[in-house]
Known about the structure:
- The chain is α+β, with helices and mostly antiparallel strands.
- 20% of the residues lie in helices and 36% in strands.
- The protein has helices at residues 64-72, 77-86, 109-112, and strands spanning 3-15, 28-30, 38-41, 47-50, 58-62, 90-101.
- A 6-stranded antiparallel β-sheet has the order 2-3-4-5-1-6.
- A hairpin with a 7-residue loop joins strand 4 and strand 5.
- The mean pLDDT is 91.
Amino acid sequence: MGMIERHIDFVVFSAIFRESDFWNDKYETCPSPAFYKRGYKGSAGERFFFGNNKSQKAMVVWSGETLALFRDDGKQDCDMLAWALSKNGSFTRLDLAVTDYISEDFLSVDDVKV
Length: 114
């Protein structure tokens, strides 16, 4: 019998944040993607992007590594999503990772053929 591991692996959402809250020593500036002018990166790698001409909201990106660091700090996936929702976040991407650890035998191509 194998073990199945499930967790959120990547998140992008938009929410209202005051950019001035990121002008301190807890955040460093980072390159911003297209359509955004300014970016800030936190200690766990979380990124906040500001300056999109078509939106007042900031875009927030949590990579798989960032989410793993949050989990190592005792946060559960539901806590992180609840925090984003508490900021009235609008999710544009949410990736889930499911890993099935098989302890008896490895799968073959014939096992998964349709």
